[in-house]
Amino acid sequence: MKVLIVGNGAREHAIAWKLTQSPGVSELLVAPGNAGTAQIARNVPIGATNIGSLLDFAKSESIEFTVVGPEVPLADGIVDRFQDEGLLIFGPSKAAARIESSKAFAKRLMTAHNIPTAKAETFSSMKDAQAHIEQCELPIVVKADGLAAGKGVLIARTREEAADALRRCMEQRAFGSAGDQVLVEEYLQGHEISVFAFVDGDYVSSIVAACDYKRVGDGDVGPNTGGMGSYSPPASSVWNRDLEAQVRRDILEPVVKALIAEDAYYRGVLYLGLMLTGTGPRVVEFNCRMGDPEAQVTLPRLKSDLLEIMLATAKGKLSGLDIQWEQRAVVGVVVASGGYPGSYPTGYEISGIDDLDDAIVFQAGTRQSDDGLTTLTDGGRVLTVTATGESHQEARRRVYENIDKIRFRDSFYRRDIGAGL
Ligand code: AMP
Ligand code: GLY
Asked: Mean pLDDT, to the nearest integer, of 288-293?
């Protein structure tokens, strides 16, 4: 099968890497891809949000299956557009992707179906939201309704901070129309985990879980990022079979049914951001795709054929498949450009990517130099170094033994990913 992957992050490199192991893949293309995907697939210079050009390309190249990595084209309806033209594609429809693209929609669904989550109120008037925060307990969580690349959430320790967040969203429109509505939400305390399942409309596959580090600095300090590292599975003290069964019964299956009732059959990977609170797991957010960097640490644990799983998901035939995950641990550490998540220069030469032992690099913000001889930085999160081990400690040791072999100017990474497990 001729397969096209849409996206250019380390998540898409990991998907490409896993799909190269599927005997059913005859040719792999990535749009737009990065220097890492260029080594194992053919990059196509079309941006991930350019749906019209992707569709024309898929038709003219006779692509048989398209796999969408990031949320923006899903929220923009890439799946509906491809399906309208009779093309097979992996990912949820625009209506189903609202589970991520509208936090107000997701909250309404959860509240209506008794799915455990933080209590929240949704506002489209600044005045009403301001009046509401006067009565909320602190801290207060203020969220823009729409997609904001992970930046639309503020945890306010004071009412003044909450009021500032409201102004930024609703008056200054820092997130554009994504901030037309805001949610003012109860603060949840606990251990945060990311949970993933393939969903084919109504059937929910076996679950895999990971932990993500969102803050830029060691010890979880500094601003939020797209994710600085990850490991899978979570420690057995926080994630076990009973909890998995509870998450399936109380969250995954009900939300899939709730979506069916909205005429939004969910097909793709469903990602739950969960807070493990003193009163049980509660949903922090839903995402309509794999996580990044979680994909880089979960896909290496997948024993089953990813193409088969994705095809069965897209065709609504998942219930017959047994999806197996390895017990071994995987740790992934992101190497970033100095300055990230703020502004940073790009175009620095990267050395050492091919010198690693027992570790895999998934590239993100990288590109080939014009002469094709060197790999250059081209983004904030440049790459993820991952390793597998019998224990988290072993996997972590392998990552950190290798990571300093990769060099570029002003690079940095967190040193505490997977520590203390
Ligand atoms: P979201 O984009 O909704 O995932 O929010 C980004 C991050 O903010 C989450 O991964 C959490 O770490 C944090 N967060 C969001 N909502 C809450 C909440 N209600 N209580 C505590 N932390 C939260
Ligand atoms: N790792 C967080 C995300 O993919 O949204």
From this structure: 98
